[in-house]
Amino acid sequence: MLDGLGRPVEPAALYLKELMARDSSPLTPRSYGMDLLRWFRFLWALGIEWDRATREDARDFMLWMKVADKPKRIHWRHRGKAPSKVPPPRSGRPVPGTPNPVTGKPTVGTKYSPATRAHCETVLREFYNFHLDENTGSLLVNPFPLVRGRRLSQLRAQRDGEKKHRNRRTGLYRPTVPQRVPRRIPDEMYTKVFAGLRSHRDRALLAFWVATGARAEELLTVKQGGAVVGEQTVSVIRKGTRDYQDLAATPDAFVWLRLYQESAWKKGVPRGRQHPLWWTLRRPWRPLEYDAARMMFNRANDLLGANWTLHDLRHTATFLMLDDPNMPPVYVQKILGHKYLSTLDIYNRPTRDDVIRAGLAHHARQEKLREETPVPVDEPSYNPDSLSILFGRDAS
């Protein structure tokens, strides 16, 4: 992380070094560094030293993130060009922040999402906690404090020796993050997405993601020796625990994999058990990374006007396994690599499509019930008083 003059920002460098020493994921320092860079740029614009920031500065920063527009990312092909030479964005796409007409998922908006703001608040609070513990700079208090009730309960938990404390990360300026509802890709739409892929490699990747339920990054780091055709398994390194785990896949996935490997090896892609399983399609041969896989999937999405993500493939695999009555949920938990079985509770909630289908089915049942139920018709009859007079009965 560099300042405006190209010099390393020492406080941020120390904190990122601490993260790397904790055996964090390689993506964690990058994610945390983006949040730190956003905060330091805010301080530099106001001429405030990082160790002189107050709670009011933290409050203003969180308010700024709430109302400011995100910076627009320029494609690498157009960097350094004049604004007049940069082509305008493609038309026909949904307005940013509105639901996608195909998937129902909200599109990426122009503002920072609550999840981004919450992540940034947590990172900055931990950043200042680290420097307070190290007694770095002129810090006296953390400008990103916890809610007062949380601070007292956290101190009480530490005093009582409790290792677990619920909601201990709740910050004073942390926004409320709406809980995301996992979405599956319907079978008919999955077939269309699959048909829109351009190569055997992309078809094999999609088949493995839906068959194994592995995270995108987990599958992309598989070695060629990790795909065992005889056992129909693929070995991945789980996120967090870094454990090796064999995941079962479908025969179709291995068929597409074999087609991809045969065509790739003929072109000169490196071959060997310790070499990566997935490579770029063009020279120079490089291991396939997450951003390239994401763009591949986005191109297939554009053909349908959808905005599904690679993680939606994992949700699709989870729904397929949970829909199987002979598949115990505890096995699904192990396949997904979740620590707790309760993580699967989010899949028990009805999705948008389920609610719509249930509502339409209700109206159809009501319409069918109205059609089958005969309408009572008043039949003609004699007046009882007239019949009594006619037959000489007592009218009373």
Describe the structure.
With 396 residues, the chain is mostly helical. It has 14 helices and 3 strands. The chain has helices at residues 10-21, 27-46, 55-67, 114-134, 148-159, 187-195, 200-212, 216-220, 251-267, 290-304, 310-322, 329-336, 352-372, 384-390, and strands spanning 227-228, 233-237, 244-248. The chain has a 3-stranded antiparallel β-sheet with strand order 1-2-3, with no helix packed on it. Helix 6 packs across helix 10 and helix 7 packs antiparallel against helix 9 (251-267). The radius of gyration is 30 Å and the shape is extended. The N and C termini lie far apart (104 Å). 21% of the residues are buried. Residues 180-360 form the Tyr recombinase domain. Residues 75-113, 367-396 are annotated as: Disordered. Residues 85-99 have a biased composition (Pro residues).
